[in-house]
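Morning F.,

Quick status update on the modeling queue. The single chain you submitted on Monday has been processed. Sequence for confirmation:
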Amino acid sequence: MARDVRMKGFAERADVEVVEAFLAERTRALPAEAVDLLECVGRVIAEDVSAEVDVPGFARSAMDGFAVRGEDTFGASAYDPLRFRVLGTALPGRPFEGHVGRDTAVRVMTGAPIPVGADAVVMAEVCTESDGQVEVREAVAPHRHVGSVGEDIRCGDLVLRTGRRLRAQDAGLLSSIGVASVRAVRSPRVQLVVTGDELLPAGSRPGGSHIVDSNSVVLRALVRRDGGVNLPFEILPDEIEVIRDALLADADVILVSGGSSVGQEDHAPRLVAELGELDFHGVSMRPSSPAGVGHIGDTLVVLLPGNPVSCMCAYEFFAGPCIRALAGRSREWPHRRVTLPLARKISSAVGRTDYVRVAIEDGKVIPIATSGASILSSTVRASGCVIVERAHEGMPEGALVEVRLYDDEPPAGTLP
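Structure tokens below.
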């Protein structure tokens, strides 16, 4: 019996907002785990952190100079310097063990403990040392140039709150209070399922009827940006049993790139429905209308179109927010945004959400002329994108639009 290879279109398409609301309801932060201090940057902490020590834990010198009793320097001036006997030296990690009394001083370096008896530091610039004595040409008040105990952090201080995404300086602070590990939201494990008999591995040279896989390169970078962990993957042939096995991966999220529409070799939607549930397939948007979402057990499956721009677009709308939510981050798009006027109108259709690539030139927004879903170079030429919501029939020239920038850098005057 001949195989039926007829292709059917989508009977209906879901609105973007409906799919987004469904995913927001299903994706919550993953459980917490212990994370080593050196690996915690970018992670979201799952519990408050309070200091159990003072920082610094000792009075220390704020500059190079001489530790003295501040009151002993009163009256010192360039015309009438006072002399102090130098008892020794205090260095960082090597304190002076003696006692500073009247008319005595200890040579001290920045960060070194203040010797017992001293309460101030005279800057080296106003001192002259010779023959075991130091001349002081400027008076200093008690506690001058001395960092006090707990000046930075007091024991018991709440230093970081639950839900904070840790930055480099946060990790440094944790180190300063003696924290070796923190409880943080587990990073979601993301499995890429990239299919296509026409695909060559990333880094290959294209030739003949084959093209080089670029989607996995883009997706892996976006997953890292959003706090996910990429699991090992390889390009799979368009064979139903191979794809079935891949969809049973032990992962929190599976991203299927290619084979997700309604064509003869588009096995993924049918397999998701068979192994779990295909919640949505077909979305009222341009590009990315073949996108879909489903689940197999507790694993979220996002069907991404094979065309590179469609793949990127569907990721930003559906996969990215879920991965960020699972990692404990905000679902909001992480792009910096600017509002500028349109240099030319944007055409759209009521009832469809449009993802429009745009350039910024001379402070105005210009829709990219070549906008096909397979033209990945359009995203390179673009400064960012404008989202036209389904209630709007395009946007007129001169209208102020919000641009979601692809880069962190501010837009230059003229882009290539």
